[in-house]
Design a protein that fits this description.
- The structure is a single chain.
- By secondary structure, the chain is an alpha/beta fold.
- It folds into three domains: 2-167, no CATH class; 180-216 and 248-418, Rossmann fold (3-Layer(aba) Sandwich), CATH 3.40.50; 219-244, no CATH class.
- Helices cover 53% and strands 8% of the residues.
- The chain has 18 helices and six strands.
- It has helices spanning 2-10, 15-26, 33-43, 66-79, 82-96, 106-117, 119-127, 135-167, 169-174, 188-216, 222-229, 261-274, 295-300, 307-311, 325-336, 361-370, 392-396, 408-418, and strands at residues 250-256, 281-287, 291-293, 344-349, 373-378, 401-404.
- Strands 3-2-1-4-5-6 form a six-stranded mixed β-sheet, sandwiched between helices.
- Helix 3 (33-43) crosses helix 8.
- The longest helix has 33 residues, at 135-167.
- The protein is elongated, with a radius of gyration of 27 Å.
């Protein structure tokens, strides 16, 4: 109803205004931007015969149109026209990314597109005409250009991720086993099927680990058996078993719930909660650029978590709503650091994306120093690690072990090894 009202307000004469109005009414979360842009372009098709569309964009450029594409992009950056920037980036991805083959990662296709766009040249074009400007104006313009280009890179990543998701549908549907479907690429129907499949898997894993624990606590204590046999002439008539010793550690789980990882976090929390008997105490936290404890939600959960249950806590978003590992881990160490001891296992689940912020290496080092063990679960496929703003190797060097958990099968395998 809001979208219809917005169209009544702006009219249907200008494609750019229609896109802006609909986006303002419909897009409530940055993770929906890619879906909106692709849906809008599918419904409101721009001119494809080389003529200028109603929003002033040449939709079907030839090789000679590359320069025009860059000029249009610089103009949109100077005007601050985000809708126009998105449209031009979508065109650049269409021309340069090669996503129709879907043979590589988001990072690969993004880098390929950025190389073809020649970002240094784009940066210089944006600053053209600054010769007569003061040094302060030039510094401000340079900072603005850097900020806009960084924002463009993130927007392009989301566009390419959306295209890869579309082209991967057939491949994912061919995977009959929900355990092997990529968690970060799953659609709503697939996620629902994976949640249903997760419940019996979690129960079986808990049972298997319980049996393994009970078996591992018994065994022959040879030294005490020999000593007891001295009273029977050295004949070990009564074997002595090793005494059981409580070795259960505490467990603290920190889950990133920003962006696409919001769908991954419930699987991790659900699985770890199912095996809580393997630990003396379990505490769970979720974070974006703020961090909150959700142990009470898991204790009262019927076994299936909805991401909305995790995102509703006050304090979860403390800034711009993008994950900030350094800020989050600093806050955790300050507020809950005393709960981490040499009997504590800490698990961090997240994609290690820094969003061009300072890395959390020092905080991870301190956390590992305090804990018994520190593990990291990364839902991104291994071939995406260390691309763009990923700090996978950097963070992995601070951990006891670092796991790829892009599917349910990999997640279960990692938890089995940790426990």
């Amino acid at each position: 109803m809001d979208a219809v009202a917005s169209l009544a307000a702006v009219g249907l004469d200008n494609r750019h205004e229609v896109r802006t109005a609909l986006k303002a009414a419909l897009v409530k979360d940055t993770s929906h931007e890619v879906l909106f842009e692709r849906s809008f372009n599918a419904v409101f098709v721009a001119a494809r015969d080389g003529r200028q569309g109603s929003d002033g964009v040449l939709s079907n450029r030839g090789e000679a149109g590359d320069e025009q594409l860059m000029d249009d992009l610089v103009r949109a950056m100077r005007d601050g026209d985000l809708s126009q920037i998105d449209s031009l980036l979508d065109e650049a991805v269409e021309r340069y990314a090669g996503t129709e083959k879907n043979t590589s990662s988001v990072g690969h296709h993004t880098q390929r597109t950025l190389r073809r766009m020649n970002l240094p040249a784009l940066y210089q074009r944006f600053l053209e005409g600054d010769d007569d400007a003061t040094s302060l104006d030039r510094a401000v313009n340079a900072a603005e250009a850097t900020m806009l280009i960084d924002s463009m890179k993130e927007r392009m990543e989301r566009l390419i991720a959306g295209r890869l998701r579309d082209t991967a549908i057939d491949t994912r549907q061919s995977l009959q086993d929900p355990e092997d479907r990529p968690l970060l690429l799953a659609g709503p129907d697939e996620l629902a099927a994976m949640r249903l499949a997760m419940r019996p898997l979690a129960r079986r894993l808990a049972t298997r680990l319980g049996i393994r624990r009970r078996r591992s606590t018994s065994g022959l204590d040879m030294r005490r058996t020999i000593r007891a046999s001295m009273g029977t002439g050295g004949v070990p008539l009564q074997p002595v078993l090793r005494r059981r010793r409580p070795t259960k550690p505490d467990l603290i789980v920190l889950c990133d719930v920003s962006g696409s990882t919001a769908e991954f976090a419930p699987f991790t929390l659900m699985l770890l909660h199912a095996v809580h008997q393997e630990f003396r105490r379990v505490r769970s936290f979720v974070f974006v650029d703020g961090i909150v404890e959700i142990t009470d939600i898991l204790d009262s959960s019927p076994g299936v978590l909805d991401p909305r249950q995790l995102l509703g806590r006050r304090g979860l978003v403390a800034g711009d709503g993008r994950s900030d590992y350094r800020r989050v881990l600093s806050t955790f160490l300050h507020n809950w650091g005393d709960s981490v001891t040499n009997k504590t296992t800490v698990i961090v689940a997240g994609d290690t994306r820094s969003h061009r912020r300072e890395s959390a290496v020092a905080e991870l080092h301190e956390l590992h120093h305090r804990a018994r063990r520190l593990y990291w679960l990364n839902p991104e496929p291994r071939h995406d690690w260390d691309t763009l703003d990923s700090c996978a190797t950097e963070y992995g060097n601070q951990c006891t072990d670092f796991f790829e958990v892009s599917t349910i099968r990999q997640l279960i395998s990692a938890v089995t090894q940790i426990v």
